[in-house]
Design brief:
This protein is of the alpha+beta class and about 260 residues long. The strands form two sheets. It has a five-stranded antiparallel beta sheet with strand order 4-1-2-3-5. Strands 7-6-8 form a three-stranded antiparallel beta sheet. Helix 3 packs across helix 4 and helix 6 crosses helix 7. The longest helix has 18 residues. About 30% of the residues are buried.
Amino acid sequence: MAGDSSAVDVLRLLADCESTGTLELSGPSNGTFRLLEGRLTAVVTDAVPDLATRLRRGATPVREEERAAVARSVVLDGTTVLLCNPLSGPPRFFTGQAEPPAPAGGPPLRLNVPELLREALARVTVLAQSPIGPDDVVTVRPVLGRRSVRLGPVAWQVLRGLSEPRSARSLAWLLGLGLVDTLLALADLVDQQACESPNAMRRNLPDLRPVTAPRPDRPPETRPAPPTASVPLLAAHRTPPAAVPALPRRVSGPG
């Protein structure tokens, strides 16, 4: 997932100038950043589940004091995905009072732009190593043998949602999870060979086949001891030449 650095530069400049307005990005995923006096108040994009979906479809009810954290997570999710996409045109900034986002039960936000960008860019770096993309269909692999799999809270929800083949994007909207969190959980499950995708990049995964123990009636193979360090390696394995018989001495005759 390759992004465009121009959006990052513009956002930093708007934060430094304490600008108010909307920054629009166009690309595979369109989005709008809303700023108020250099602070980020919202990110609007259809690329990730919005706050209303996150609050309505989450695995557990969100308490009032947790809504700010969920709202910030939605902004971080949208920022990360928008920074991953190449732009189809230059960012466009419209000066003026930013319209408030549609009410979704979340508190008003005024987020520090440099801090949010640092988090988003760190997630972009991790996503670049993902063996799958947000629209790659993933299925659960049949369990072969006795194998342990690490499951975090998000991975547990993702596995429960994989009753049929689905992509990270469809799972995120279905379960009310962040798209980036869902994608990273699926990528980890693919790395652990608990899930698979036909489009997954081949990586140096460990061989999980069982190790065959040696048969008891076959003695273990023995190897010659290595030569000592004081003997040159080639000299230690060189066959000494056979002895050459001495020639008879020529004896002069009488006369």
